[in-house]
């Protein structure tokens, strides 16, 4: 480039700075392990120029741009972008004043080209005909495929051009391109520069691009050469080559790097007439005047040239007054985000179908497999009874009362052998009737019964209690059958059947039914667990994926607020959650007939609130985790502790005291008991046990949603 003014109006008309950076320091870490990414960096970019920020990978180029965009906090220094500090209320940075093309393509693969431009256009408040005209213009200018082409079907070069179009859509005052030519073929690189030069002709847009391809930046109006977080020099390419008497920018950069190695980390002004490390060019050079019209010393630029004092800066750029409306979400931004999430949802029909089907499958598996009485349990029966009562063996009569569906009776001749086989796992237990069982049982209820008679009328039972649930089922079946057998036997003896029962009368249950099983106890908690953790799964990877692909960062630069992202996600995921919740409630109460004594509306509302709580928890996970693996681990790792401590599988009254208080603080503990009280006890909202569940769930929703926004702002 022979004349640095060929793209603009001349230095006299471009004295206003698009980017004004002074004394910028950015450090990661603390103490001896601290990494100084930017070191007392000073940079000025006049409006209306193409500014190439050059340097090797890892020198701090992207970090500097993120600071200029308000995307990264820095330790010290002053940054003014388009005349004001980034993130100043009412300032369009981040926002529509900036077009940003990150190093990644940062596009939604499920979108078409038109939908991509519609998304960013809506955020930039372009409407109707204006948006359509810009789309048509950019598609033709950048020679993009048909506007209905899906992003995922485009080539790498086409994706970069779509990304470029998204950055240019609103005709920004400042266009920032982070490594736009990295990894592309030379032909596409030439095309990108062709587009840049055509956009810069009007002098209205300031273009800043980063690259480590030094020679290609010769086409820029100005270049800044960076190394190890320091700006070694900034001027026009031709001025730098003339000053250092080299034919290429690469040799200029080499000289500056060698000089920088010899200097101390703190910048030292070089002697007059020497090519300085900070910036070197002559006062007579027209190109030099782009950076500074005056206050130039021969051979180097004064470190404070063209800078206002700090006091002047703070007076000039005083923050605008507080306005409550600044914190309310923008309707257009919210609409764009909701449409974006809906498109992503619809374009993945397989995942959507799975999300709709999985709750019904889970509830069916629970109702069919949990709480149902075990069947086909093999029991060895050693019947040595040789006596009779009225020509009938009482042992055989009792065995006939046993439920053949639950217990499979396997006759055995020898008690020791049967016991050994049970120990080998062939049987769940052994029943042994002694030789005089019938005779002794008939005499057991006579006056002055002998101990030998009592002993002979007993049935010896040995059970495998390694599986407590099966052992309890066998005990219950044997005792219930024995009670029925004994009642009929007493009637035959013309005795009162009450004599054969324990003197405790368990009357009609206060709540529930005597035939209720473990399924009925677990069902309310399982409903909430399914809805809660499916919602966690829906949202736990949301921000992780978009952050990793650069999509979230691009939305932040476009001016989207964390509250808008949260609200849009909640609205769209609520659609899936409501379908999931509906299928769970229909299957458990209508299909599997789990008891429902109370108001179904209370159950629906509490279940929906628990789903929202799970979604908020997932958003917290997504906001704090950096990759998919850690997000999945946190989500899965929280599943069992919450389920075990919330009284879903076992009553919380059995939890040890320290854990008991932790259990009470969890979001599902009171909610599970509330749902159980409504479904099985029929209690209403006025009962403390019921409204406490709603209050605690609402409190958790508030805390988690606020925490999600705080984390998003901190990670933003």
Task: Please outline the helices and strands.
Elements: E1 17-28, E2 35-46, E3 50-54, H1 61-68, E4 76-81, E5 98-101, H2 113-123, H3 128-141, H4 156-168, E6 174-178, H5 186-200, E7 206-211, E8 222-227, E9 230-235, H6 237-244, H7 249-262, H8 288-291, E10 296-297, E11 300-301, H9 310-316, H10 331-346, H11 349-369, E12 377-383, H12 394-401, E13 407-412, H13 415-423, E14 429-433, H14 437-443, H15 451-456, E15 459-463, H16 468-492, H17 518-539, H18 542-548, H19 551-557, H20 562-591, H21 600-624, H22 628-645, H23 657-665, H24 669-681, H25 688-715
Parallel strand pairs: 3-7, 3-8, 5-6, 6-7, 12-13, 12-14
Antiparallel strand pairs: 1-2, 1-4, 8-9, 10-11, 14-15
Helix pairs in contact: 2-10, 6-7, 10-20, 11-17, 11-20, 17-20, 17-21, 17-22, 17-24, 20-21, 21-24, 21-25, 24-25
Membrane topology: Multi-pass membrane protein
GO molecular function: ABC-type transporter activity; ATP binding; ATP hydrolysis activity
Domain ABC transmembrane type-2: 486-715
Instruction: Give the C-alpha Rg.
Output: 39 Å
Structural class: alpha/beta
Number of strands: 15
Name the assembly state.
single chain
User: How many strands, which pairing sense, and closed or not: the largest β-sheet?
Assistant: 6 strands, mixed
Q: What integer is the average pLDDT?
A: 84
Give start-end ranges of low-pLDDT stretches. 1-15, 264-307, 309-322
Distance between the termini: 39 Å
What is the general shape? elongated
Strand content: 5-15%
Record the strand order, biggest sheet.
5-6-7-3-8-9
Task: Specify the helix fraction band.
Answer: 40-55%
Number of discrete helical segments: 25
């Amino acid at each position: 480039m022979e004349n640095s003014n060929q793209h603009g109006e001349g230095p006299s008309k471009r004295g206003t700075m698009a980017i004004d950076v002074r004394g910028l320091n950015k450090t990661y870490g603390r103490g001896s392990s601290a990494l100084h990414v930017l070191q007392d960096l000073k940079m000025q970019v006049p409006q209306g120029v193409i500014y190439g920020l050059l340097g090797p990978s890892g020198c701090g180029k992207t970090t500097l741009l993120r600071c200029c965009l308000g995307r990264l906090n820095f330790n010290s220094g002053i940054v003014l972008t388009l005349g004001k500090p980034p993130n100043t209320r009412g300032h369009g940075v981040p926002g529509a004043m900036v077009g940003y093309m990150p190093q990644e393509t940062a596009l939604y693969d499920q979108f078409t080209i038109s939908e991509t431009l519609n998304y960013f256009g809506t955020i930039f408040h372009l409407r109707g005909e204006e948006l359509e005209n810009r789309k048509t213009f950019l598609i033709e200018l950048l020679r993009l495929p048909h506007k209905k082409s899906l992003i995922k079907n485009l080539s790498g070069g086409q994706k970069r051009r779509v990304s470029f179009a998204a950055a240019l859509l609103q005709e920004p005052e400042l266009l920032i391109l982070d490594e736009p030519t990295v990894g592309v073929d030379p032909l596409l690189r030439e095309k990108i520069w062709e587009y840049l030069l055509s956009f810069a002709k009007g002098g209205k847009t300031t273009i800043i691009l980063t690259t480590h391809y030094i020679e290609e930046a010769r086409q820029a109006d100005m270049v800044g050469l960076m190394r190890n977080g320091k700006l070694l020099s900034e001027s026009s390419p031709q001025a730098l080559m003339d000053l250092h008497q080299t034919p290429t920018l690469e040799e200029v950069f080499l000289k500056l790097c060698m000089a920088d190695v010899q200097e101390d980390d703190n910048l030292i002004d070089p002697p007059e007439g020497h090519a300085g490390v900070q910036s070197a060019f002559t006062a007579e050079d027209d190109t030099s005047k782009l950076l500074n019209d005056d206050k130039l010393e021969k051979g180097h630029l004064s470190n404070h040239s063209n800078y206002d004092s700090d006091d002047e800066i703070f007076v000039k750029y005083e923050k605008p007054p507080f306005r409550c409306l600044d914190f309310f979400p923008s309707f257009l931004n919210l609409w764009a985000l909701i449409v974006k999430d809906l498109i992503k949802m619809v374009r993945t029909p397989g995942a959507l179908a799975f999300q709709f089907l999985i709750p019904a499958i889970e509830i069916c598996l629970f109702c069919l497999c949990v709480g149902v009485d075990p069947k086909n349990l093999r029991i060895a029966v050693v019947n040595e009874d040789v006596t009779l009562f009225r020509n009938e063996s009482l042992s055989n009569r009792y065995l006939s009362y046993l439920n053949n569906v639950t217990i499979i009776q396997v006759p055995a001749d020898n008690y020791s052998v049967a016991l050994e086989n049970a120990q080998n796992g062939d049987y769940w237990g052994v029943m042994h009737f002694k030789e005089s069982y019938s005779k002794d049982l008939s005499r057991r209820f006579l006056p002055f019964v002998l101990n030998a008679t009592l002993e002979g009328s007993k049935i010896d039972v040995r059970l495998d209690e390694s599986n407590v649930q099966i052992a309890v089922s066998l005990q219950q079946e044997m005792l219930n059958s024995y009670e029925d057998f004994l009642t009929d036997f007493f009637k035959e003896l013309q005795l009162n059947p009450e004599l054969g029962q324990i003197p405790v009368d368990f009357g009609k249950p206060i709540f529930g039914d005597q035939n209720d099983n473990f399924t009925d106890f677990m069902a309310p908690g399982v409903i909430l667990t399914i809805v809660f953790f499916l919602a966690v799964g829906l949202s736990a990877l949301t921000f992780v994926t978009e952050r990793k692909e650069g999509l979230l960062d691009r939305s932040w630069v476009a001016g989207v607020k964390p509250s808008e992202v949260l609200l849009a996600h909640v609205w769209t995921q609520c659609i899936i959650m409501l379908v999931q919740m509906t299928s769970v409630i229909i299957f458990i109460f209508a299909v599997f007939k789990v008891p429902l004594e109370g108001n179904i509306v209370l159950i629906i509302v509490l279940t929906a609130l628990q789903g929202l709580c799970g979604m908020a928890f997932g958003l917290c996970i997504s906001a704090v985790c950096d990759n998919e693996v850690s997000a999945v681990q946190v989500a899965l790792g929280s599943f069992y502790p919450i389920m075990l401590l919330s009284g879903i599988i076992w009553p919380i009254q059995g939890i040890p005291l320290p854990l008991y208080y932790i259990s009470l603080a969890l979001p599902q503990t009171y909610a599970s008991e509330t749902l159980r009280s409504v479904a099985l006890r029929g209690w209403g909202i006025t009962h403390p046990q019921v409204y406490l569940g709603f209050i605690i769930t609402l409190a958790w929703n508030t805390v988690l949603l606020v925490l999600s926004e705080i984390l998003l702002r901190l990670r933003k």
